[in-house]
Amino acid sequence: MCCPIFQDLLSDPVVAEDGNTYSREAITKWFATNPTKVSPVTNALMKNINLTPNLAIMGMVRRFKEEAGHELLVRCENMERWTDDGQRALALIDAGADLTLRSTSPPPSPHYLDTAMMIILKKTNLPLVHKIVIESFNIQSLSLLVKSNTNQTCVEIVQHKLLTSNFDPITKKGWTVILAELAKREAKEKKDLAKQHKVRDRQNAAQRREQDSLSASARGQNTRNASENFITINGQNIDLGTNNGRGLGQFTSAWGYFPSLFTLQFLSHVPPAPASFQDAEKIQKKKLVLILQFITFCIFAYLVIA
């Protein structure tokens, strides 16, 4: 599951004409910088640059990241048992562990709904935090806008740590560097998110304008065909329908034709729920099963006694 070009975990894996699987970003850059369009693995000339998503490998990569993320969460929750100074946790992060997973420990746990990064910032030592935040490449994919069970982001956790802990000057300076780096990445993430929202709003506005145009065109077509939609019987005008299979029919402003929820559930490209939500759902299902079993037992006991 390693990209032959980037030599890291595959991201958005696609199959090229040579039959090999690459990360989409890697093979796209390869084609852009190599006009001859040769294979980066076999050096053979490829007739086209069509890329096909490799859904099987994509599922394997997702499962690997979730498994690594679960192991990382367990290790972070039991950090006091570490005997390797966090090297295994660092290796899991570098290997592509899913850093968005949240702890599903019962609410009495201080880490309930915390991500691995939040637990590390709360509990671990400065050298390991420095390696993760400054040196680890995979940390770039971590969202710094999510909040912990105490309603704190990663930046706010470090700020609280600096305010409440009595660090020596050298350690305090190290945590200040960490805070500055996290704050810079958080600001960049907010800026990118705002840019995405603007692009989405522009696309929605363009779609609404197109729908308004279609609506106006359809109403005009219906008006022109109005005489065809009525017949006169015994002096009475009878409406035969405003559409009759022509055009779009009556089209309300800003309304479109959308698939039903029944159709959407069969679409293969709809991503599955995150693993942390799946775990939480399993826990809630177990609770509901126990409650139903208890209610059934009570009813059965009442009927026997009565």
Helix and strand layout, with pairings?
Layout: E1 13-15, E2 21-23, H1 24-33, E3 52-53, H2 55-77, H3 87-94, H4 116-123, H5 126-135, H6 154-164, H7 169-224, E4 230-233, E5 236-239, H8 261-264, H9 275-305
Antiparallel strand pairs: 1-2, 1-3, 4-5
Helix pairs in contact: 2-3, 2-4, 4-6, 5-7, 6-7
Walkthrough of the structure:
The strands form 2 sheets. The chain has a 3-stranded antiparallel β-sheet. A hairpin with a 5-residue loop joins strand 1 and strand 2 (21-23). Helix 2 (55-77) runs parallel beside helix 4, helix 4 packs parallel to helix 6 (154-164) and helix 6 runs antiparallel to helix 7. Mean pLDDT is 78; it is low at 242-257. It is extended, with a radius of gyration of 29 Å. It is mostly helical and 306 residues long. The longest helix is centred in the middle third of the chain and has 56 residues, at 169-224. 53% of the residues lie in helices and 5% in strands.
Order of helical and strand elements: EEHEHHHHHHEEHH
Beta-strand percentage range:
5-15%
Number of helical regions: 9
Average pLDDT, rounded to a whole number, is 78
Q: What is the number of strand segments?
A: 5
Ranges where pLDDT stays below 50 over 5 or more residues in a row are 242-257
Give the terminus-to-terminus CA distance.
64 Å
| Content-based structural category | mainly alpha
- Biggest sheet: strands side by side, in what order? 2-1-3
**Overall outline:** extended
Radius of gyration: 29 Å
Describe the sheet with the most strands: 3 strands, antiparallel
Q: Which bin fits the share of residues in helices?
A: 40-55%
